[in-house]
Amino acid sequence: MAKTPKIFTELSYIATVIPIPVYWLDTNCIIVGGNDLCLSAIGSHSKTINEVLIGKTFYDYYPNEIAYELTKMIKIVLETKKSIIAEEKIVDIITGKFRYYDTVRAPLFDCDGSIVGTICTAIEVTAKKEAEETKLARAKHIFEKNKFEFEKKIHEVEKHQQTQIRRIVEQVVHDIRSPIATLQMILPHCDNISEKIRLTVTKSVTRIQDIASNLLNQFKLQHDGYLGKFDSKQSISLINSDILDVITEKRYEYMNSPVNFITKISQAGHFAFIDVNILEFKCMLSNIINNAVDALDNYYGRVNIHLDVIDNKVQIIIEDNGKGMTYLIKQKILNSISVTSGKKNGHGIGYEQIRNAITNNGGELNIESKINIGTQIIVTFPIAITPGWMCSLIELEADNLVVILDDDPSIHGAWDARFKKEVPNIILKHFEQGIEAIEYITNLPTFQKEKVFLLTDYELLKQNTNGLDVINQTKCSRSILVTSHHNNETVRNIAKASNTKILPKLLASEVGIIIARQVPTKTKIVDLVIIDDDELLVSTIIKYILVDKLVDTYNTAHEFLLNVHNYSKDTNFIIDNEFKGECITGIEISKKLYALGFRKLYLFSGGDYTHDNSIPSYLNIIAKTDVEVIKNLK
């Protein structure tokens, strides 16, 4: 039997008087002695240490992971012959809760100097630790709360600053765009200016317009962030506005490149709408233009962008005078085969997005190209019905009083120039302050107030009112809101509620202004009226088909609308759907006629409208190949 080390015997004599838990182990990590205070340290209710600890290892009463760590530290003491002081977290074997101790483990040496074991002591600091943790948790909570409030304050300050900056940017852009609109409206009427000077001024106006638009677009990009993927939502969009946005970006992107961007938009194109995912559409157009610029190989060249309405479709042509493409490349693009070779900056990869955007939005793609001459990318989309809020024509009566409200004095001069040339007998009244316009219209005699036609800007800077407020307060039955906020749903809804049309400000120089003829004292009696711009077709029908009919004909929608009041309500109207260079369709003309009380309405078209839900139920279709039907109309 092995002899018990003398140090163990001496410790057993004094352990009972030591006021803190103490125990000792042999070199095999077996507990061989200690005082009863150790029992409370581990949560035991036994009376003596001999019943619980003596002759056992840590694995006998602790979970394996805790026992392993405690045994590991004992072995380190035995190997290094040095003490270890540490804070430990021990599980109570009865409650299962953690208790905290400041511990000391030291080597035990016998009389001959050999190491025979380890002595350990632990002072419980659970209450102190929990108090510290509670205090720390409270401090952390206060910190997090204050941090949240602090970050909230910072966010509010940043948001306020962003709002202030945005207002400044929008005001600057507004202040720039108003004189631009003035120049755009006046230039066509400056007959005494040479073509060279007019072209120079036009280019300068375009440049300033680009600067204003880019300023606003860049701010929106930084403020709102970039959408990494497309929303699948489609919407009715004024395509002219969207195309000009992309071209503005491209002029800035290639401002140091010898590329000249030229835009040509027809009268019908200015007022055309399509139903597309607008983000997808803009990305498509951007990719096409990038490829057109690449084709110029950094040499001086041009990229022409044309917008028109042909055969009830919106047609966009992007044309360059670059190196062209081979028949093989053209077929790859049209047949959805990847094309990347020879393209800078990865722009060739954009053809996949171009095809997807066109397909997803019901469009068609065609390509015309000749080597060393250039390329035409032709994209077409079905034209959408013009939204009810859109003003595509200012239609006045001869005795109207036109009230013009705009906070920019230059705009008034521009409107004066347009009205003087197109409807010189109309009386105009100008206001820069909304409150003055309201007071003037409100105080008019009833019979004069009924003759008011209000043209008002939406934004009236530094005034406590806007154009819609003026319309609502004056209760003008006929009014047009002239604004750059035509895409704002809130503005549209409020305008709709007051039966107000919206004229996008960029189209103020393009919108037609006409005088509607008064109802004559004597009504014209004819068998039918044909409105069609194909003069040869109309004359042939009259000469060979309608020889026994009394027929009036009009080659333009504009001329017809000036004379529509001459006819009785039972007159037959045969209306073509497309009018070159005009911003109205036969379907839209029929809606105007129906609203005036005419009921014998026929759409004379070469298209197939069999499954077209946009055709009003009161509008009958006559194919241009079936002219015999016209002969039998009564």
Tell me the helix content.
25-40%
- For the record, the CATH architecture of the largest domain stands as 2-Layer Sandwich
CATH homologous superfamily assignment of the largest domain: Histidine kinase-like ATPase, C-terminal domain
Strand content: 15-25%
General description of the model:
- A 5-stranded antiparallel beta sheet has the order 2-1-5-4-3, with helices on both faces. It has a 5-stranded mixed beta sheet with strand order 7-9-10-12-11. Strands 15-14-16-17-18 form a 5-stranded parallel beta sheet, with helices on both faces.
- About 2% of the residues have low confidence.
- It contains 19 helices and 24 strands.
- Strand 16, helix 14 and strand 17 form a beta-alpha-beta unit.
- The protein has 634 residues and is of the alpha/beta class.
- Helix 4 packs antiparallel against helix 5 and helix 4 packs parallel to helix 11.
- It is elongated and about 140 Å long.
- The chain folds into 4 domains: 119 residues, PAS domain (Beta-Lactamase), CATH 3.30.450.20; 147 residues, Histidine kinase-like ATPase, C-terminal domain (Heat Shock Protein 90, 2-Layer Sandwich); 124 residues, 3-Layer(aba) Sandwich (Rossmann fold), CATH 3.40.50.2300; 104 residues, Response regulator (Rossmann fold), CATH 3.40.50.2300.
